[in-house]
Amino acid sequence: MTDRQPSLFESEPPEAPWEEDELRDRLVVEVAFAEPPFGPYDYLLPEPLRPHLREGMRVRVPLGPQNHLRIGYCVRVSPAADRAGTTRRLKELRSLVDKAPIVSPGQLDLAKWIAEEYVCSVGEALEGMLPAGVRGLAGTRERTYLRTATDWNVGEGVAKITATQREILEALDRAGRALTPPELVEASGKSLATIRALRKKGLIVGVTERDAPQRRAAKEVARTQPLELNDDQAKALVRILDAAEEGRAETFVLFGATGSGKTEVYMAAIDRIVEQGRQAIVLVPEISLTPQTLERFRGRFDRIAILHSHLTDAERHAEWKQIADGAADVVIGARSAIFAPLDRLGLIVIDEEHDGSFKQDQTPRYHARAVAIRRAKQSGAAVVLGSATPSLETWQACEAGKATRLDMPRRVLDRPLPEVRLLDMRTDDRGRTRRGAISRLLERAMRESLEAGGQTILLLNRRGFATQIQCPACGHVVQCPHCDLSLTHHRDREAAVCHWCEFEMPAPQRCPECRAEGIRYAGVGTERLEAEVRARFPNFACLRMDSDTMKKPGSHEEALSRFRRGEIRVLLGTQMIAKGLDFPNVTLVGVINADTALHFPDFRASERTFQLVTQVAGRTGRGEAEGAVLVQTYSPEHPALQAARRHDYRRFAELELKLRREHGYPPFERLLRIVARATDPTPARVWLDAIAERLRARLAEQEAARPRRSKDETLRPHVRVLGPAEAPLARLRGYSRFHLLIFARDLPPVRKLLAEELIALPAPAETQYVLDVDAYEML
Ligand code: ADP
Ligand code: ZN
Question: Does the pTM of the predicted model rise above 0.85?
Answer without folding.
Answer: yes
